[in-house]
C-alpha cells in the first residue's frame, strides 16, 4: 500500500512530529510506502512529491513548521493558480497516477472541509486535526494548541513584572479570530485580570470598573488578555483598541503587546509531541483497517475518529459552560 501525506493551511508546532508518527508507523509497522506531498493540495496539482525513507524522517520530533511546506490552496474554489482547470478532477487523476491508495491530510478547518469533499467523491482520505486555535469540531484538543498556550503564558508572566513596576495596564493580544481558546487558556494560566474572547461580548465600562476596583484594593496594575478576533472599531488591532479605551476609562497608563506569529513558531511542547505521535500513528492504523473518510480525534485521553462530513463546516467555540470560564468568573476575573 502507498499512502500520500500533505500539510495544508497555517503551520503549527507538532506537524513534523505528526508526519513522523504517520510515516514511521506506516513503514515500520505496516510495511507501507509513504509519499510526502509538498505545499498542501498545490503539490497534488503539480505532482510535487518525494518518496520517504526512514532516514528522511529523522530529526522531525521537535522541529517546528512543516518539512513538507504548506499552502492555502483550496481546490474546490475557482481562484488562485490554475483557476481555469477542474482542480478536484486533476488531483484525483494525479493521485491515481502516483499510485496513492490513501491521502493523509494534516490541517485545520479549511483542510478538513476539503478532505470531506474529496471523501464524498470517493477518494480514500484520512484527516488529522492541526491548529493552534483549537477550534476544530470533534476533538478536545488539536496539537499546536498546548505550545501556543505555553508561549502566550510565558509572555503574560513577563508582562506581570513590568506592569507591576510601572503601575500600568498591559494589554496582550493573542491569536484566535473566531475562537478564544488561546486567550482563555493563557489568560487563566498567566493570571490575567481581564480576558476578552470573540464568543463573549464585553462592556468597556465594566472592564474599566474592574481595573479601578483593583486599584482601590491596592493593586495598581492589571493584565488584560485579548483574542485578536474580539469586536473593535474595525480599524485598529484588538490590543491597540482595547488599550486606548482602557486608558480613557481608567486614566491609568496603558500599553499593548501583540504576540503574533511567535505563537506558531518553534518546537512543540512534550504534550504536543506525544499528541502528534499518537494522532499520526492512529491515522495510519485507520488506513490499515480501511477506515477512510474520517478525522482523528482526542476524546478525554483516548484517540478516536469521526466522519469527516460531521467535522466539515463546524467550529468548536468557547461557551459560558466551559469550566475555565466558570471558575474564572467565580474568582472575579472579568470576561467583559
Ligand atoms: O493557524 C491559525 C491562525 O494562527 C489564526 O489564529 C491566525 O489568525 C491565522 O492563523 C493567521 O495566519 P496567516 O497569516 O498565515 O493566514
UniProtKB/TrEMBL annotation:
<feature type="binding site" description="in other chain">
    <location>
        <position position="228"/>
    </location>
    <ligand>
        <name>substrate</name>
    </ligand>
</feature>
<feature type="site" description="Important for substrate specificity; cannot use PPi as phosphoryl donor">
    <location>
        <position position="110"/>
    </location>
</feature>
<dbReference type="GO" id="GO:0006002">
    <property type="term" value="P:fructose 6-phosphate metabolic process"/>
</dbReference>
<feature type="binding site" description="in other chain">
    <location>
        <begin position="261"/>
        <end position="264"/>
    </location>
    <ligand>
        <name>substrate</name>
    </ligand>
</feature>
<comment type="function">
    <text>Catalyzes the phosphorylation of D-fructose 6-phosphate to fructose 1,6-bisphosphate by ATP, the first committing step of glycolysis.</text>
</comment>
<feature type="binding site">
    <location>
        <position position="109"/>
    </location>
    <ligand>
        <name>Mg(2+)</name>
    </ligand>
</feature>
<feature type="binding site">
    <location>
        <begin position="108"/>
        <end position="111"/>
    </location>
    <ligand>
        <name>ATP</name>
    </ligand>
</feature>
<dbReference type="GO" id="GO:0047334">
    <property type="term" value="F:diphosphate-fructose-6-phosphate 1-phosphotransferase activity"/>
</dbReference>
<dbReference type="InterPro" id="IPR012003">
    <property type="entry name" value="ATP_PFK_prok-type"/>
</dbReference>
<dbReference type="GO" id="GO:0005524">
    <property type="term" value="F:ATP binding"/>
</dbReference>
<comment type="pathway">
    <text>Carbohydrate degradation; glycolysis; D-glyceraldehyde 3-phosphate and glycerone phosphate from D-glucose: step 3/4.</text>
</comment>
<dbReference type="GO" id="GO:0061621">
    <property type="term" value="P:canonical glycolysis"/>
</dbReference>
<protein>
    <recommendedName>
        <fullName>ATP-dependent 6-phosphofructokinase</fullName>
        <ecNumber>2.7.1.11</ecNumber>
    </recommendedName>
</protein>
<comment type="subunit">
    <text>Homodimer or homotetramer.</text>
</comment>
<dbReference type="GO" id="GO:0003872">
    <property type="term" value="F:6-phosphofructokinase activity"/>
</dbReference>
<keyword id="KW-0808">Transferase</keyword>
<feature type="binding site" description="in other chain">
    <location>
        <begin position="131"/>
        <end position="133"/>
    </location>
    <ligand>
        <name>substrate</name>
    </ligand>
</feature>
<keyword id="KW-0324">Glycolysis</keyword>
<dbReference type="GO" id="GO:0042802">
    <property type="term" value="F:identical protein binding"/>
</dbReference>
<keyword id="KW-0963">Cytoplasm</keyword>
<dbReference type="InterPro" id="IPR012829">
    <property type="entry name" value="Phosphofructokinase_III"/>
</dbReference>
<keyword id="KW-0418">Kinase</keyword>
<dbReference type="GO" id="GO:0048029">
    <property type="term" value="F:monosaccharide binding"/>
</dbReference>
<feature type="binding site">
    <location>
        <position position="255"/>
    </location>
    <ligand>
        <name>substrate</name>
    </ligand>
</feature>
<dbReference type="GO" id="GO:0046872">
    <property type="term" value="F:metal ion binding"/>
</dbReference>
<keyword id="KW-0479">Metal-binding</keyword>
<feature type="binding site" description="in other chain">
    <location>
        <begin position="175"/>
        <end position="177"/>
    </location>
    <ligand>
        <name>substrate</name>
    </ligand>
</feature>
<dbReference type="GO" id="GO:0070095">
    <property type="term" value="F:fructose-6-phosphate binding"/>
</dbReference>
<dbReference type="GO" id="GO:0005945">
    <property type="term" value="C:6-phosphofructokinase complex"/>
</dbReference>
<feature type="domain" description="Phosphofructokinase">
    <location>
        <begin position="2"/>
        <end position="287"/>
    </location>
</feature>
<dbReference type="GO" id="GO:0030388">
    <property type="term" value="P:fructose 1,6-bisphosphate metabolic process"/>
</dbReference>
<keyword id="KW-0067">ATP-binding</keyword>
<dbReference type="Pfam" id="PF00365">
    <property type="entry name" value="PFK"/>
</dbReference>
<feature type="binding site">
    <location>
        <position position="168"/>
    </location>
    <ligand>
        <name>substrate</name>
    </ligand>
</feature>
<feature type="active site" description="Proton acceptor">
    <location>
        <position position="133"/>
    </location>
</feature>
<comment type="similarity">
    <text>Belongs to the phosphofructokinase type A (PFKA) family. Mixed-substrate PFK group III subfamily.</text>
</comment>
<dbReference type="InterPro" id="IPR022953">
    <property type="entry name" value="ATP_PFK"/>
</dbReference>
<dbReference type="GO" id="GO:0016208">
    <property type="term" value="F:AMP binding"/>
</dbReference>
<dbReference type="InterPro" id="IPR035966">
    <property type="entry name" value="PKF_sf"/>
</dbReference>
<feature type="binding site">
    <location>
        <position position="10"/>
    </location>
    <ligand>
        <name>ATP</name>
    </ligand>
</feature>
<feature type="binding site">
    <location>
        <begin position="72"/>
        <end position="73"/>
    </location>
    <ligand>
        <name>ATP</name>
    </ligand>
</feature>
<keyword id="KW-0460">Magnesium</keyword>
Amino acid at each position: 500500500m502507498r499512502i500520500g501525506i500533505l500539510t495544508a493551511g497555517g503551520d503549527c508546532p507538532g506537524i513534523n512530529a505528526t508526519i513522523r508518527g504517520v510515516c514511521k508507523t506506516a513503514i515500520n509497522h505496516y510495511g507501507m510506502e509513504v509519499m510526502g506531498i509538498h505545499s498542501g493540495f498545490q503539490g497534488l496539482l503539480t505532482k510535487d512529491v518525494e518518496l520517504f525513507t526512514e532516514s528522511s524522517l529523522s530529526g522531525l520530533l521537535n522541529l517546528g513548521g512543516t518539512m513538507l511546506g504548506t499552502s492555502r490552496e483550496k481546490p474546490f474554489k475557482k481562484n488562485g493558480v490554475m483557476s481555469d482547470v477542474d482542480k478536484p478532477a486533476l488531483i484525483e487523476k494525479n493521485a491515481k497516477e502516483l499510485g496513492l491508495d490513501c491521502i493523509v491530510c494534516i490541517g485545520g478547518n479549511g483542510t478538513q472541509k476539503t478532505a470531506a469533499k474529496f471523501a464524498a467523491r470517493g477518494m480514500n482520505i484520512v484527516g488529522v486535526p492541526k491548529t493552534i486555535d483549537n477550534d476544530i469540531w470533534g476533538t478536545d484538543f488539536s496539537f499546536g494548541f498546548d505550545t501556543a498556550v505555553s508561549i502566550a503564558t510565558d509572555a503574560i508572566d513577563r508582562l506581570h513584572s513590568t506592569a507591576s513596576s510601572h503601575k500600568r495596564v498591559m494589554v496582550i493580544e493573542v491569536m484566535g479570530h473566531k475562537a478564544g481558546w488561546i486567550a482563555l487558556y493563557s489568560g487563566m494560566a498567566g493570571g490575567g485580570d481581564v480576558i476578552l474572547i470573540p464568543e463573549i461580548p464585553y462592556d468597556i465600562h465594566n472592564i474599566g470598573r474592574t481595573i479601578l476596583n483593583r486599584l482601590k484594593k491596592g493593586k495598581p496594575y492589571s493584565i488584560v488578555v485579548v483574542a485578536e478576533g474580539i469586536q473593535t472599531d474595525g480599524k485598529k488591532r484588538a490590543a491597540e483598541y482595547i488599550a486606548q479605551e482602557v486608558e480613557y476609562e481608567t486614566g491609568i497608563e496603558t500599553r499593548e503587546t501583540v504576540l503574533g506569529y511567535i505563537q506558531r513558531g518553534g518546537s512543540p511542547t512534550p504534550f504536543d509531541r506525544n499528541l502528534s505521535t499518537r494522532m499520526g500513528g492512529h491515522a495510519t492504523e485507520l488506513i490499515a483497517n480501511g477506515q477512510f473518510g474520517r478525522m482523528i480525534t482526542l476524546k478525554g485521553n483516548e484517540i478516536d475518529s469521526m466522519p469527516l462530513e460531521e467535522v466539515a463546516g463546524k467550529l468548536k467555540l468557547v461557551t459560558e459552560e466551559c469550566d475555565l470560564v466558570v471558575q474564572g468568573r467565580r474568582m472575579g476575573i472579568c470576561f467583559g
